[in-house]
């Protein structure tokens, strides 16, 4: 298993993986991406989106056949190692992110309420959505 920054030639395949995991969103290909590879095949990814008011971890996902091997954690740690500042996220699985240093926050970036009005958040249970923050060490 190898986690690395996504190379330009890998972006189309990374977007396909995101789509297969129902994590794709408009502009994904322009965000900073990291991938998890097994035997030369992309099996996971995470994206860092830069907003005017914050950095956001987006689209963290691992192919079901490759889960339970620490790839999600490795992807989060690779992103955090290179993130230029504190990182926010919105999630319905806060326990996973708490285990990786994120804390629930009440200081919600201004871009997040507007984000919830996009098609990307449709179908997501809004009452379970938690905004979290991990401060850059």
Low-confidence stretches: none
- Order of strands side by side in the largest beta sheet? 1-2-3-4-5-7-6
- State the major sheet: 7 strands, mixed
Number of domains: 1
Please give the count of helices.
Answer: 4
Radius of gyration: 14 Å
Give the SSE order as H and E letters: EHEEEHEHEHE
Shape: globular
CATH architecture grouping: 3-Layer(aba) Sandwich
What class, by secondary structure content? alpha+beta
Helical content class: 10-25%
What is the level 1 CATH name? Alpha Beta
CATH-assigned homologous superfamily: Gcn5-related N-acetyltransferase (GNAT)
Distance between the termini: 26 Å
Average of per-residue pLDDT values = 91
Number of strands: 7
- Proportion of strand residues: 25-35%
CATH topology name: Aminopeptidase
